[in-house]
Design goal:
The complex is a heterodimer of chains A (286) and B (278). Chain A is of the alpha/beta class and 286 residues long. In chain A, the strands form two sheets. Chain A has a six-stranded mixed sheet, sandwiched between helices. Chain A has a four-stranded antiparallel sheet with strand order 2-1-4-5, with helices on one face. In chain A, 45% of the residues are buried. In chain A, 40% of the residues lie in helices and 21% in strands. Chain B has a single domain, classed as Rossmann fold, CATH 3.40.50. The chains are: A alpha/beta (286), B alpha/beta (278).
């Protein structure tokens, strides 16, 4: 069991300086093993600061982050080992590709773990498999790949570390619709196959509704909601007030209900929305 | 509408790599045109051909009748058609918002009072009056992108080309930038050429052009283009969620028009159906 727990976590940039700025404050929550959590919040809400504390890239200025019950900052000699349990994919991760071949790039992390060549090779294959990177691309330069392929190669490098928790900061930013679907589908397949925790930062409510089972909403550096997708999107009006939107079809269902059509509103995908609207009309005519 | 932008049988190659092939395309004065297509379909190349950053390998591009391969016309072409790019951080040159917006008009050698008027008008048009004395790096991504648009506006262009201007923004920043783009088109009559990956943004345009493999695969109104879901998916794109829902409802036997692209249209149509049924 690998759980990630935050206890009263806060972070202040430039602490003690005249221009200090608190980005996150008082966040307490637990990411349970196997959850697929979508994190939403507008720019400046503290999302990125929060996830950088999950793997020790930033040290909280208040509170603690626990992985499997251990405070990751407790024993500095073990920090590295604990950090490896949480794999963080930053925004535009392809900017960090640097090796001569895709294979070497994916192998970079495992190699630093001091693993045997065989083990490294098997991890590279496994990670490339999850990301659907064909064998023939592995010996190409990462710079010859398309934008979507580069991004998948960069994510594979994180997966090759076999993290217990995978955190991705807007992995679909800047991609075209097919590239977006490809990335989200491979993440979903990885999650289903490995049953490991996935934390996905996204600006798209439609994507979060489609892929995650829990939603975490950050607002002005604090935790606004952390609950199942259904519970969080019940707060449609509050979400709109904080400048976030709700899935398009949920918005349509809320309007229909307001205007007297008997539809369910805890629905987030077009297919399910079509069903409840169709049922409502059968109810009227039948 | 007169054709402000005209592509005549345009092809473009980077070395031996053909990016665009035999493109014929026009944009009328005051038109709002969205360009869609998967990454690598040639969209950005198309944009760069309009204001002469690139010139065609064969064929001609005309901006207000001026040939973009005629170097003596380049300054006039760029005054007519301004460009906004994806990454706001790469487009800001000055340390104060108003200086950034004044940068291009200053280079035109205009009178200082004229520059002042243009900067004030431009900043008002993008709704950032309060930030005129701010340092650009303190602004959010969406605000920086609006500064970039204001910088182009200060040149008083008749056409603005925007290459994925909202790709790096959050939903709020995106809707504010899109609001500015729509207003410039509707109120000032500026021709808009918007390259985007967001179908909801393309739904706001008068016309959509879809590029695939360097060629024009579709050219029609958002309603025409989005009503064929299978075609959109085969072009590596998608339809807006509201169109997807509408098409599913039609599949379930509800009598709806298949070219619904805005949420309000769908709710109105459904409420009308309900009132007729009760």
């Amino acid at each position: 069991m690998s759980t990630l727990r935050l206890d009263n976590v806060g972070f202040t940039y430039q602490k003690g300086m005249p221009d200090e700025k608190t980005a996150v404050s008082g966040v307490s929550l637990t990411f349970e093993e196997g959850d697929f959590v979508g994190i939403i919040g507008h720019t400046g809400s503290g999302k990125s600061t929060l996830i950088q504390m999950l793997n020790g890239l930033l040290k909280p200025t208040t509170g603690s982050v626990y992985i499997d019950g251990d405070d990751i900052w407790d024993d500095k000699s073990k920090l590295r080992e604990k950090r490896f349990k949480v794999g963080l994919v930053l925004q535009y991760p392809e900017y960090q590709l640097f090796e001569e071949t895709v294979r070497k790039d994916i192998a970079f992390g495992p190699k630093n773990l001091g693993l045997s060549d065989e083990e490294i090779d098997s991890r590279v294959r496994e990670a490339a498999g999850f990301l659907r990177i064909p064998e023939k691309l592995l010996d190409r330069s990462p710079f010859d790949l398309s934008g979507g392929e580069k991004r998948r190669a960069a994510i594979a490098g994180v997966l090759a570390m076999r993290p217990e928790v995978l955190v991705l900061d807007e992995p679909t930013a800047g991609l075209d619709p097919r590239g977006r679907r490809d990335i989200l589908d491979v993440i979903k397949n990885y999650h289903e196959a490995e049953k490991k925790t996935v934390i996905l930062v996204s600006h798209s409510m439609d994507d979060v509704a489609r892929y995650a089972n829990k939603v975490l909403v950050m607002n002005n550096g604090t935790l606004l909601y952390y609950d199942s997708v259904g519970e969080v999107f019940k707060h449609a009006l509050e979400l709109r007030e904080t400048g976030l939107n709700i899935p398009t079809v949920t918005g349509i269902l809320l309007t229909l209900r307001e205007r007297g059509l008997d539809v369910d509103t805890d629905i987030y995908t077009p297919a399910a929305a079509a069903q409840t609207i169709t049922d409502a009309f059968r109810g009227i005519s039948g | 509408m007169d054709n402000l932008i005209r592509f005549e049988n345009v092809s473009f190659s980077y070395g031996t790599n053909k990016v665009l092939e035999n493109i014929d395309l026009t944009a009328g004065e005051g038109e709002f045109l969205a360009v869609l297509g998967y990454n690598g379909s040639g969209k950005s190349t198309l944009a760069k051909l309009i204001n002469g950053i690139l010139v065609p390998t064969s064929g001609k591009v005309y901006v207000d009748g001026m040939d973009t391969s005629d170097e003596t016309k380049l300054a006039d072409i760029r005054k007519t058609a301004g460009m906004v790019f994806q990454n706001p951080d790469n487009q800001i040159v000055a340390t104060i918002v108003e200086e950034d917006i004044a940068f291009a008009p200053e280079n035109l050698g205009l009178d200082p009072s004229e520059i002042r008027t243009r900067v004030d008008d431009a900043i008002r048009a993008v709704g950032l009056e309060k930030h005129i004395k701010d340092a650009p790096h303190k602004l959010s991504g969406g605000q920086k992108q609006r500064v970039a648009i204001a910088g182009v506006l200060a040149m008083q262009p008749r056409c603005i080309i925007l290459d994925e201007p909202t790709a790096m923004l959050d939903p709020k920043g995106r809707s504010l930038v899109m609001g500015v783009i729509e207003r410039l088109n509707r109120e000032k009559g500026i021709t808009i050429i918007l390259i985007t990956h967001f179908m909801e943004e393309a739904a706001l345009a008068d016309r959509i052009v879809i590029l695939s493999d360097g060629k024009i695969a579709e050219n029609g109104t958002p309603r025409q283009v989005f009503s064929d879901r299978e075609r959109m998916i085969s072009l590596g794109l998608e339809v807006p969620p509201v169109t997807e829902l509408t098409l599913d409802l039609i599949g379930n036997g509800l009598p709806l028009e298949k070219d619904i692209i805005h949420p309000e249209e769908l709710t109105e149509a459904l409420i009308k159906m309900k009132e007729a049924a009760v």
